[in-house]
Amino acid sequence: MSRLTHLDDQGNASMVDVSEKQVTFREAVAYSEVEMLPETLKLITEGGHKKGDVLAVARIAGIQAAKRTSDLIPLCHPLMLSKVAVDLIPNVERNVVEITATCKLSGQTGVEMEALTAASVAGLTIYDMCKAVDKGMVIRSVKLLEKKGGKSGHWKVES
């Protein structure tokens, strides 16, 4: 197992120095889902929510969160993302909204945290917009699905 990289020589938390790393294409895909009552999912999919288009707002929130990850997660590098996509798919059979966030850039460090943040905040936004009708919603399965680029190369979760 490799050494944690956010520790300096004295064992203190520090921002990793990436100045010597090569600029490469990097991409990360993360996932989360929000489980809810069937009535709540129907309200979202039929556009009957008083607060507006829940999925559109969650998509924008996820994109904004990815762009602000370094403000939210200590020691993350501020990144100039070239692409952020947040896809929200209602799954009526499972009573969930499935969220997939993809982040891309050419840079010296990866975008895993940005993709995970986007997927998480999109789920939190759905919860926030729908909590008045369904306080029992569950945000779960926040995970990295795939990453490409950088020193460690390509990684993909095993199905």
What would you say about this model in short?
The chain has 159 residues and is an alpha+beta fold.
How would you describe what is shown here?
It is a single chain. This protein has a five-stranded antiparallel beta sheet, with helices on one face. It has a domain at 39-148: Alpha-Beta Plaits. By secondary structure, it is α+β, with helices and mostly antiparallel strands. It has four helices and five strands. The mean pLDDT is 91. The protein is elongated, with a radius of gyration of 17 Å.
The CATH H-level superfamily of the domain at 39-148 is Molybdopterin cofactor biosynthesis C (MoaC) domain
Uncertain ranges: none
Going by helix content, strand content and strand pairing, the class is: alpha+beta
According to CATH, what is the class of the domain at 39-148?
Alpha Beta
Strand order of the largest sheet: 2-3-1-4-5
CATH architecture field of the domain at 39-148: 2-Layer Sandwich
Q: What is the residue-mean pLDDT, rounded to a whole number? A: 91
Number of strands: 5
The count of helical stretches stands at 4
Q: What does the overall shape look like? A: elongated
The portion of residues assigned to helices is 25-40%
- H-E string: EHHHEEHEE
- How would a textbook summarize the main sheet? 5 strands, antiparallel
Q: How far is it from the N-terminal to the C-terminal residue, by CA?
A: 23 Å
InterPro entries: MoaC, MoaC_bact/euk, MoaC_sf, MoCo_biosynth_MoaA/MoaC, Mopterin_CF_biosynth-C_dom
Catalytic activity: (8S)-3',8-cyclo-7,8-dihydroguanosine 5'-triphosphate = cyclic pyranopterin phosphate + diphosphate
Pathway: Cofactor biosynthesis; molybdopterin biosynthesis
Keywords: Lyase, Molybdenum cofactor biosynthesis
